[in-house]
Amino acid sequence: MTITQLEYLLAVDTYRHFATAAEKCFVTQPTLSMQLQKMEEELGVQLFDRSRVPVRPTELGKEVITQARIAVAEFKKIEEIVQVQRDGVSGELRVGVIPTLAPYLIPLFITDFIKKYPQVHVTIQEMVTSSIVEKLRLELIDVGLLVTPLQDKSIFEIPLFYEAFVGYLHQDHPLAEQKEITPDNIDSSDLWLLNEGHCFRSQVLQLCNRAKSSKNMHLDYESGSLETLKRIVETQSGMTLLPELSVLDLPQNKKAVIRPFAEPQPLREVSLVVHRSFLKKKMIESLREEILSHLPDGLRERNPVRVVKIK
């Protein structure tokens, strides 16, 4: 059994298609299939059910694949140690970021990070939390920027900062006259929300102690974008809840107002998330340091008093 065979095994598990796996491994399909067949013959077991489309691992194959991921990761760590000593921080860094963070956090640090580490090629993808966790498991990305805690044993969370929730209200909303708001005085029928699948939506409903939101009697609109929610509040009515970074340096708007929550303010925990056997430790630590150095003082120094959970 060889490391190459294990890498082919993981590729088929990731893409669930022999031709695609071979393409990603830069070999022909017959070569990949032959090596996997040799591996199965050596072990005396069948690792994949080839009669199904897409191809799937057998029950025993799943266990072998889990161990193979550990073995390949440990082998790659040797290469990584040598590379860091020889080249410093270099290589490809694949980052997954949730949409409620990406437009507000990434611009704060990414230009300086690239300048500081010119030998690093950064690839950033926006995706929801479940997709980030799945891509980490399949090693299709190296690190995620998302909201925690997730209570997922397959990943490791590195908390970065705690971001407050704020209210964004139409100028004529009754709560606009108050200096602060509380979860108890929010009417869910006035609340515009993100689509299902966004962790921020789950947190908003949890914060407001609602199993689900009531519908606006004239218009149902659930968005995948915080910016769209802002525009709806400004042009229609009602309110939405936003993360703090999304309203920093927001131009003054006569159509809507921002209201903080009363103390203790509800917060969300923002973390770097990696696979348990993650690689590129030096690169990810450099990313962590760069993000922290570019945060506004209020976020960097805040203590987690009231973190809203994700359900």
From TrEMBL:
It holds the Pfam family LysR_substrate. Residues 1-58 form the HTH lysR-type domain. SUPFAM superfamilies: Periplasmic binding protein-like II, Winged helix' DNA-binding domain. Keywords: Activator, DNA-binding, Transcription, Transcription regulation. InterPro entries: LysR_HTH_N (IPR000847), LysR_subst-bd (IPR005119), WH-like_DNA-bd_sf (IPR036388), WH_DNA-bd_sf (IPR036390). Belongs to the LysR transcriptional regulatory family. This is Hydrogen peroxide-inducible genes activator.
